[in-house]
Structure formats: structure tokens, C-alpha cells
Amino acid sequence: MVAGNWKMHRTASEGAALARECVALAAADPLAKRCEVVICPPFTGLAAVGEALAALKGSGVHLGAQNMHAEVQGAFTGEVSGPMLSAVGCEFVIVGHSERRHVMGETDAMVAAKLRAALRDGLTPIVCIGETLAEREQDKTAEVLVRQLSAAYSGLDAATAAATVVAYEPVWAIGTGKVASPEQARDAHRVARATLDQVVGPSTGSAACILYGGSVNAGNAATLFAEDDIDGALVGGASLEAASFWKIIAAASALNRP
Fold first, then answer.
1. What percent of the chain clears pLDDT 70, i.e. is strictly above it?
2. Which of 38, 86, 110, 171 could form a disulfide with 106 if both were Cys (CB 3.0 to 4.6 A apart)?
3. Under CATH, which number does the domain 2-255 receive?
């Protein structure tokens, strides 16, 4: 899986045009169907991008949102609920992105609530985890990942956990141009898998889809994807241009043998 997080970029019309470019590239690539593709525009672009994707049936490109509120409705000014996302065609939603955690103050408990709300509302949550630079320098990466995953997945059964996606995004690599080495990413993914086994049950980790995120681009994607424990990528800036995004998808498709 390769998911593009557009963050606070692209208007509705710009997003629809970008979605059409991505679909055109998918249609021209015989290997494209080996990789599940998700694009996550800002809230204001969801309807337009959803309509563009719906008009291009069979594209294999799915619509996702960048965040959601845990409640179905209520007095939550500025928030968007799961049913609202589903109504415009969303199938996926990102929860717990580091910018939500560290800039907007979301706690582990809030992320856990959003994960469950997404499943309740028929959405596949992409659950983000990751350590800051200070935490890595203090050798606390594993501790942070265990804490975040334990809070998010505690109480879930294996079937429910399998309906989610995990994205490991070291905070120090997001938007900085710094990328975790393949070995660093692999080790973190192995910690995540072992934690899921412990928290949910045996074999949950090996069955999980775990993406890497953090300055992924066309130049480093293939090297990252060559690691068996890395199942794809959550892509930021490189997803804002169809050509660069598709090179990442092509790298994933080429390694995903039928």
C-alpha cells in the first residue's frame, strides 16, 4: 500500500486534477494493481476528489481523510465525523499523525478512540506511530512505539486489528528530508509487529500491514520497500505531484510479486 497525505495543500479543483493525473498513470501501468493506492486530501477537497475518482471507475485509487472526530455528531466546531467522511466516498482515514499528536495535542487515548470510531463507521484507520528526535537519541524508540501501539490496540481482537493499517513515521524524518535508514525502519517495524503480537495475540504482527513514512521519495522508496517488514509507505510532499508519487507506487508494485 502507498498512501498520499496531502496535508494542507491543494484546493478542491487542484486536488481533483491531481487525482485524475494519478488515475491516468495507474491506467497506463500494468503493474499498478499490485499496489493499493490511497490519497488523502484536505477536508475541503474530499468531495471533489471523491467525485473525480468515482467518475474513473476501476482506477484502484481509494479516497482517505487526514483526521476525524471520535463522535458521530455533536457540538464540535471545526471537526468532521466518520459518517461525514463515508458520505463523500472515503474508505480510509489517518489517525494519530505526529502533527496531530505534537502540534494539536492529541493523546494516545484520543488516538485509540478515533481508531475505534473509524472501524465503527466503516473506515479503515491508518494508525500513525513514531518517536521524536530526542526520544531516538535517548534510545527510547521501542518504548514509545510500544506505548503508542498498546494504547491504540489494547482490547482489540485479531480480526479487528487486521482491519487496520499501521504507519511508522519517525517524527524527526517528517518533512525534514531526513530518512530513517532501511535498518532503522526495519527494526522499528519489527518492534511494532512484536508489540501487536503481545497486545492483540500471536501472529497479529506478521499479518499486519505496516507502512513507513518520513521523507519518502522516488529516490529512496525502492530501498525501503526491499525490507520484508515494510509493506509500503505513507507519503507526504512527494504525493503532491503525480509523477513523483507514481514513481513510489511503481517501486512498490515492482517488488510485490503476484
1. 99
2. 110
3. 3.20.20.70
User: What are the extents of the domains in the chain?
Assistant: 2-255
State the distance between the two ends of the chain, measured CA to CA, in whole angstroms: 14
- Catalytic residue of the set 62, 135, 169, 189: 169
Please state the φ and ψ torsions of residue 49, each to the nearest 5 degrees: -70, -40
Whether residue 97 lies in the annotated active site: yes
Predicted confidence (pLDDT) per residue in 6-44, tens digit: 999 999 999 999 999 999 988 888 777 789 999 999 999
Strand 209-213 versus strand 233-235 pairing type = parallel
**Single-letter amino acid code for the residue at 25:** L
Q: Residue 247 burial by CB count (10 A; 0-12/13-18/19+): exposed, middle or buried?
A: middle
In whole angstroms, give the CA distance from residue 157 to residue 142.
23
Q: How far apart are CA 2 and CA 186, in angstroms?
A: 17
Instruction: State the Cα–Cα distance between residues 14 and 74, nearest whole angstrom.
Output: 31
What is the number of other CB atoms lying within 10 angstroms of the CB of residue 219? 13
* Three-state secondary structure call for residue 66: coil
pTM of the model: 0.96
